[in-house]
Every structure is written in structure tokens, then in C-alpha cells.
Amino acid sequence: MIRQSALRDEIESFEALKKRTEDTRELTQIADDSMEAELVHEIEKIETAVDRLELKTLLSGKYDRGNAILAIHAGAGGTDSQDWAEMLERLYLRWAESHNYKTDVLDRTAGEEAGIKSVTIGISGPLAYGYLRPEKGVHRLVRLSPFDAAHRRHTSFALVEVLPELGDLNEIKVPADDIKMDVYKSSGAGGQNVQKNATAVRLTHIPTGMVVTCQNERSLVQNKENAMRVLKARLLEMKQEEQDEQISELRGEYTKAEWGSQIRSYVLHPYQLVKDHRTDFEMGNTQAVLDGEIDPFIEAYLRKLD
């Protein structure tokens, strides 16, 4: 039913645009000079709508139309890096809000002095994974550090993970014997009930050593379910990466991605610029980007892949 509803909405959007285009074409044949400005404006809006629908056709991956799990991890750079991770958290929450996506913070670990060490966010809505997939990788920030008494320029790094959330959790089978579960008291905000009761969950996938934590819900059962969602998404991503590496190695094109190979740089000093190193697309309005305006970067990446 969910799939049927999504397809119905997609068809209706194409049909509505088709009718809008036909109505505008008919209007141009009978309009006088006084309507020229209005018609030009309407044609520009139609062109924008066509571009958006065209972009959707580039999202043809198996999981592109589904929800996403986004995780941010502070990297090299100490307190500055943790602050940068929190800035990215705000960026993606703003972006999701502007697209009417539902967000659910599944796990969040605060930094010692400022910022966050990591955060995991569920982002729900049509094409959420497809749009966010280009954001996966290392993000680099260059600025005058607010945590440096000498106010020197610092470079900070944060890793952004984007995982597809499985509509059917049974798609990835995880034997119970492969999972070790630890329960502990939450260290985050949530009031006395969270602090008194052991509701936080840590799942360890024994074969891979992969660890997932979840502590944002008051219920142990909810935290366990959310942790399993993230674990299965990461196992799926690992499986896909292994397949991609095997294919690339056969083609002779595979190069391992290292921590320092950032996909995008955000420079706030000595000049203002955000540049994507994969597409060379750049924007000078850094504040707009930090406020969530990343669609131009996503579009440039998707069109380059096409």
C-alpha cells in the first residue's frame, strides 16, 4: 500500500505538470503584451518543476525511494571537530525540515567540552535515501577556532554515514547467536526516569565486531528495535560495499577511500567558500549551506553520475 501510494503521487505530479504546460501553451496563443511578464514567470516555474522531476529519475537505486539513517561522527580536530559534527547535525536537520521529512534522533553522544562525538538520525520520507546518498563521506571545515585562545585557524573533520533503512527488516537475516546485547543507564538528557532505569542498549555484532548504541527512547524495547534498525542498515551497507569493491577490482578501478579523502570542504576563513571535490561545484554563501541549502551539491553529484 505504501508503494502504491508513492507511485500514485508520482503519476499525479507528472499529470499535473503536463496539464499546467498545456494550459500555459494555450494561454500564450491568446495572450496580449500585458500578460507577457506573468507568462514568463509561469514558464520559469514550469522549467523548475521539470528539472525537479528529471532529477527524481536519476534516483533509480534499489533503496533510493526509501527512508535513510544518517550518522555523523566527529573526526580529527578535538573539540573543534565535535563542534563541527554538531554543526552538520543542525545542517541536515534543517535540510530535512525544508523537505518535510520526519526526523528521529536515535542516538546522540555529547562531546566533553562542546559539540557531539556522534549522532544517529532516522530520516523518513519519499526519496530520503536517494537524495542523501551523495552526502556520504568526510566533510572538512576550515575556520578560526572559537576554542583557541589565540584564535588561530583550525581544520576539522567529520564523517557522515548514510544508510538505507530497510522497509522489511527480514531482508537482512541476523542470527540471535551473532548478537550480544548490553543494557545500561542512559547518559543523555531525558529526566530522572532515564537516569534511574537501564534503558540504553548496546548491540555488538560478533562476526564483524560492529557496535550500535541507542539511548534516546525511554523504553528498553524501543531502543533495542532502533538499534537493530541501524545494525541491519549497516550490515546491508557493508554487503553492498563488498560487492562494489569486487566489481571495481575486476575492472581495475578500485582505490580504497581513506579518512583524509574529504568529499567537501567548508572554508569560513580566510575566505568564504563551500566546494565539493567530486564535482567541483561550489557556493560562496557558506551560511546558506550551513543552514541546510545543500540541494545544489546533491543535484550536481547526481547529474555527474548520470
Write a structural description.
- With 306 residues, this protein is an alpha+beta fold.
- It folds into 3 domains: 2-57; 68-169 and 258-305, Alpha-Beta Plaits; 172-251, Double Stranded RNA Binding Domain, CATH 3.30.160.
- Helices cover 42% and strands 24% of the residues.
- It contains 8 helices and 11 strands.
- The chain has helices at 2-30, 36-57, 78-98, 128-132, 192-196, 220-251, 286-290, 295-305, and strands at 68-74, 102-110, 116-124, 137-144, 153-164, 179-184, 200-205, 210-214, 262-267, 273-276, 282-283.
- The protein has an 8-stranded mixed beta sheet with strand order 2-3-1-5-4-9-10-11. A 3-stranded antiparallel beta sheet has the order 6-7-8, with helices on one face.
- A hairpin with a 5-residue loop joins strand 9 and strand 10 (273-276).
- The longest helix is centred in the last third of the chain and has 32 residues, at 220-251.
The best one-word shape is: globular
**Rg (C-alpha, Å):** 22 Å
Q: State the share of residues found in helices, binned by percent.
A: 40-55%
Percent range for β-strand residues: 15-25%
Q: How are the SSEs ordered, and which strands pair?
A:
Layout lengths: L1 H29 L5 H22 L10 E7 L3 H21 L3 E9 L5 E9 L3 H5 L4 E8 L8 E12 L14 E6 L7 H5 L3 E6 L4 E5 L5 H32 L10 E6 L5 E4 L5 E2 L2 H5 L4 H11 L1
Parallel strand pairs: 4-9
Antiparallel strand pairs: 1-3, 1-5, 2-3, 4-5, 6-7, 7-8, 9-10, 10-11
